[in-house]
Amino acid sequence: MSIPNPTAAAEPTERPLAGLRVAVTAARRADDQIAALERAGAEAFHAPTMRIVPVEDDTALIEETHALLEAAPPTFFVTTGQGINSWLDILEDPLKQRVLDYLSTTQIICRGSKGRGTVRKWGLPDAPSSEKETSTSMVELALELGIADGPVGLQRHGYVPDKALAPLGDRELYVVAPYRWELAEDLAPVHTLVNAIIAREVDAVTFTAAPAVVALFQVAEEMGARTQLLEALDNDVCPVAVGHVTAEPLEDEGLRPLYPERERLGAMVKLMGEKLRSRER
């Protein structure tokens, strides 16, 4: 009687990305992601495309805050709870109290439930949030509810596409951006990544922040390779996002990114194992 080999039976599911090469664009938690991909059998290539400006070093944020308070827009959009926390945590009184006083008397619209929960945590009135948790649906909700004429405020965290704000018309926009990004200090790995994607030397590229997508296309534009990059990502190299918000700039480019329903690193790697197995060379 033959005895089943449990190791052989388990191997396909334990290393579902074996034989695939995956590029990682993350600046934060890159080591965790690379370790997860390698456990799944992939060969990981790291090329961080952007970096976050530390909020404590961001003098522009204070200037933006003063401009917002001076204009006092009757409507204020909250994109993320993390952004609200980062913004208010860095402010000192009396400026912080002035911001809280303003927010307590204005109409707040949230992009998602996390932002709504954070607004409540700061003792502010409960605010509506969009079910789809996208920038577009946030603006649509605001217009459905009715917003006052005049300027609007926006707490921007990461990527907010211009097309999402277009329905607001010619209203003046006052932005506070506690999450500000710049291109990576060392662009050599990004140049290598762009060329590797175009040459189909990687099977997938992962994104855990929407600005990482924008940064990649910006570098490709500067290299004169934007069209070739898009063609590769649309046909042979799979763009993978950690969630629907990160996927938004990819979809704006007409791409069809892979992303999990739950915005978690583990869920992203698991989904890659389920969907990319057939791409093994």
UniProtKB/TrEMBL annotation:
Keyword Lyase part of the UniProt annotation: yes
Stored InterPro entries: 4pyrrol_syn_uPrphyn_synt_sf, 4pyrrol_synth_uPrphyn_synth, UROS/Hem4
Xref: SUPFAM superfamilies: HemD-like
Enzyme Commission number(s) of this protein: 4.2.1.75
The entry's keywords: Lyase
Annotated Tetrapyrrole biosynthesis uroporphyrinogen III synthase domain residues: 35-269
One Pfam family here: HEM4
Molecular function via GO: uroporphyrinogen-III synthase activity
PANTHER family associated with the record: BLR5956 PROTEIN (PTHR40082:SF1)
Protein name, entry field: Uroporphyrinogen III synthetase
Annotated organism of origin: Dermabacter hominis 1368
